[in-house]
Amino acid sequence: MNAITRWFTQARLQTRIMLTLIFVVLLQATISGSFTLHYIKGVLEDRIGDQALQLSRVVSVLPQFRQGLIDRDVDQIQPLAELIRQQTDARFIVIGDLDGIRFSHPIVERIGKKRVGGDNQRAIVKKESYVSRAVGSLGPSMRGKSPILDENGEVIGVTSVGYMLDSVAETISGYQKSVILIVIASLFISALVGIGISGHFKRILFGLEPEEIARLFEERNATLEAVREGIISIDREGIITTFNKTAVETLNLPKDQSLTGQDIRQVLPDSEIWSVLESGEPEHDKEIWLNGQSLIVNRLPVMVQGQIRGAVSSFRPKGELELLTRQLSHIEQYAETLRSQSHEYANKLHTIAGLIQIDAKDEALELIGQESKGIQDLVHLLVDAVPDPILAGCILGKFNRARELGLELVVDRESHMVDIPELLPRERLVTLLGNLLDNAFEATLLQLKRNTDGQRTIRLTMSDYGNDLIFEIDDSGGGIPVQEQQRIFEKGVSTKTESGHGYGLFLVSTILKELRGQISLDNHESGGGRVIVYLPKTANLEEKADSIERVNS
What we know:
By secondary structure, this protein is of the alpha+beta class. The protein has three domains: 1-207, Beta-Lactamase (2-Layer Sandwich); 230-317, PAS domain (Beta-Lactamase, 2-Layer Sandwich), CATH 3.30.450; 371-543, 2-Layer Sandwich (Heat Shock Protein 90). 52% of the residues lie in helices and 19% in strands. It has 16 helices and 14 strands. A five-stranded antiparallel β-sheet has the order 6-5-9-8-7. It has a five-stranded mixed β-sheet with strand order 10-11-12-14-13, covered by helices on one side. Strands 1-4-3-2 form a four-stranded antiparallel β-sheet. Helix 2 runs antiparallel to helix 6. 22% of the residues are buried.
């Protein structure tokens, strides 16, 4: 091996290029050919398996087979099974009872004997339809299995529809010959191309390898400037090694100085690209807030011989799409509020109309007074305590949603939320509060299913005194298990058993990281859950103000 390596390194550049190209083409052709054959085999087997599965499902629901198994009548099953098999080109259709006794088979002599293969338990025990591969009395085959159920839904037998795997092998053999011919042709062409390319290099290089390196370097710079995304790369120490013009413009960085050689932690203190160096895990399409704007970022570690040598980050502003998404979110929230109000008030109006028709005017006036008092009290409270229209609208919408669900959202009369920083994103604030209230509603409803006499109240307390905005939510649910309090903010983790949960609190956690907020989970004395959120009034806002001032200037 050393002699070969020494010979190769001492050979002419023309020879090395040609041999390298031939080797690469051979390797590529071998890999692609193997992959092609493997892919074709997989597609054929999947297709045959799906065909067998679908046919087995159809056969399993035919009433003739069900009644035949109940009557244990082979003459009722065998002719129909063979007719279907011949019409669908299946190799076999076997109907068997729970003991594995065949009631149909393409070889009549095997009817009444036990099946071979032993892969019927999922159909019998779990009532599942599935595809299996087994060696039966006719040889290896791809089988579609389905349970045959009686009128009570109990399994009385299993239908097995099979296609032989040797047909797949024959088809693959035909493709294999074609692939071999393609590989041979590729080698021949690569040899010719290698001779041509190496001869070309021999004529133009003349020992000018530095020029080739310089050309590649210029191409790399042109590529960086051609892309419309900002790109920044760092080495293992966090020193910036590459950046493009788009990155400088997007992040509003000074244009009169080079970023190369500077520490990323000094240029962009809030950038989390350093975390990729520590974890080695790529991040795709992550939304971040950096230098006063929302960005979509992709981060990848640079690996050299299995070691992390740096990281690359590409990013772009969310732009108009983000604006449209926010507007749509507000419209949907407004529509949900109107929907819940219209649904509730329609019922109340019908009741009032009925009272008037029966001349129960006093009762109608009393109902109108009760209805207007609750909502008016909340409106008066919000006008004084929460002058921000977006936050007040969110709370009012959740109040109506709670009433629609048969719950009661109570806003503490001592609440005060006036001093909200102007630069605090309102869509983030209402998303945060809305998700927490939705979780409180769900927890309370879940507890009411267990105990219909339970409390129906969710209490919201707000405070803007001091340096933080504080939101406290107390529900009447079953509380938050201590063992779940650390994991509940992870994506996909939920205390609910139904699918589709586990994303609301993950979104809450993401927003809290952006706003530098904190959250506290606890269970109050009555057994329900308590969530307290702290949002600093000044975190990131000074940086955002500086960024806006820089843009305006």
